[in-house]
Design brief:
Elements (H helix, E strand, L loop, with lengths): L16 H13 L6 H14 L3 E5 L2 H11 L7 E5 L5 H8 L3 E5 L10 H7 L4 E7 L9 H4 L5 E4 L7 E2 L2 E2 L6 E5 L12 E5 L2 H11 L18 H11 L2 H18 L5 E2 L14 E5 L7 H14 L12 H4 L6 H9 E4 L7 H15 L1
Parallel strand pairs: 2-3, 2-4, 4-5, 5-8
Antiparallel strand pairs: 1-9, 6-7, 8-9, 10-11, 11-12
This protein binds pyridoxal-5'-phosphate.
Pyridoxal-5'-phosphate binds next to helix 3.
């Protein structure tokens, strides 16, 4: 369904005059491919996250791939990751020749379960991808004690932290995505970030193939354009405001849904939420069980002009035909992602909440 005037889309990038002006400025400069703005964007993101080095690339998926290569992950190695996430971490592991090892999640925070990670560790484990799920900053301390290189996936979670420590600095390397619907948008784009200069250098060398004295067969064109970086810089200047508005929208949802029969997001003490997604859990009730009921709610909301989505289209263990993962399965059959973005108005929030109340009433 296309977004007509009365349709509330599930996601929407915040593109304003500053962004248009930034893009025009880059176009007028004549330097549109990777150039000085990409460098400036890397420095600005490194400063924002609080890391020493950053390498801008074509997407978050590419950032994951380069993070793994730069860590030395390759054929025969294993990479641990949650099952409840988009396919990018799995595909990145496969691209470097590694085997993904999937782990179940916490039913309310969607965070990797520490005990399950511990059980998944083998002598071949070369990396652990910790996803900060849907905007919630996860405490990395329990994962650090495993002494396995951690890739922090900050694709959905930036600018928030745990006990005052921002995400992106707790692992060996962090990645983020600037896809259209993420917290900060460059259309497509991503970044590899780390305090380890050798790791940053490896990622940078693999990003392009130009002017290399010898041919590195792992190198490829994975670059970001100056057009994208110019947009990213304009967005980054307003990222704090974007997150503040998302938090305000979330507060309105919490209030409006207080007496609606759904489970609202919980935030454990000390953790912050950037609300990339506002996910509610359907309780057992009338209208069929599990997936059937979820499909009905999604369809009825769509008919009312409100686009809700499954937070994850298909859990990774289903792609791999693996049994188990009870928490991921339960979440997949009950979780609904409601529209949330900075340009969502207070009245839109009220309309979504009211529609949900009527559908579940
Ligand atoms: C979006 C996303 C990615 C992939 O980023 P792309 O830029 O779309 O390739 C990876 N991990 C998570 C958690 C994401 O949300």
């Amino acid at each position: 369904m296309s977004a007509g005037p009365d349709v509330i889309p599930h996601s929407r990038p915040t593109l304003e005059d500053e962004d248009i002006q930034a893009l025009i400025g880059v176009a007028q400069s004549g330097q549109v491919a990777q150039g000085p703005r990409v460098e400036e964007f890397e420095r600005a993101m490194a400063a924002f996250v609080g890391v020493d080095g950053a390498v801008a690339v074509a997407s978050g998926s590419v950032a994951l791939e380069l993070a793994l290569v730069a860590l030395g992950v390759g054929t025969g190695d294993e990479v641990i990751m949650p099952s409840y996430v988009c396919a990018a971490p799995l595909l990145a592991a496969r691209r470097v020749g590694a085997t993904p090892r999937l782990v179940d999640i916490h039913p309310e925070t969607y965070a990797l379960l520490v005990g399950q990670v511990e059980q998944a560790i083998s002598p071949r484990t070369k990396a652990l991808i910790v996803v900060h799920p849907f905007g919630l900053a996860i405490d990395l301390t329990p994962f650090q004690s495993f002494h396995i290189p951690i890739v922090e996936d900050c694709a959905a979670t930036l600018g928030v932290g745990v006990n005052g420590r921002l995400v992106g600095r707790g692992g060996t390397v962090a990645i983020c995505s600037f896809y259209a619907t993420k917290l900060l948008c460059t259309g497509e784009g991503g970044m590899v970030m780390s305090d380890d200069p050798a790791l940053v250098d490896r990622a940078r060398k693999l990003r392009g193939y130009d002017e290399a004295p010898t041919l590195d067969h792992a190198a490829f064109n994975r670059k970001m354009t100056d057009l994208a970086a110019g947009l990213g810089l304009a967005q980054l200047r307003r990222l704090r405001g974007f997150i503040a508005r998302r938090e305000a929208v979330a507060a309105l949802y919490h209030e409006a849904l207080a007496d609606v029969d759904v489970r609202r997001p919980i935030i454990p003490p000390g953790q912050e939420h950037a609300y990339h997604r506002f996910i509610v859990g359907l309780n057992p009730g009338a209208g069929g069980t599990g997936s059937e009921r979820l499909e009905t709610v999604l369809r009825r909301m769509e008919r009312r002009g409100i686009q809700c989505r499954r937070p994850v289209f298909r859990p990774l263990h289903r792609y791999l035909d693996l049994e188990g993962f009870p928490e991921t399965e339960r979440v997949h059959q009950t979780a609904v992602s409601l529209p949330i973005y900075p340009s969502l108005g207070d009245q839109d929030v009220a309309r979504v909440a009211e529609a949900l109340r009527e559908e579940l009433g």
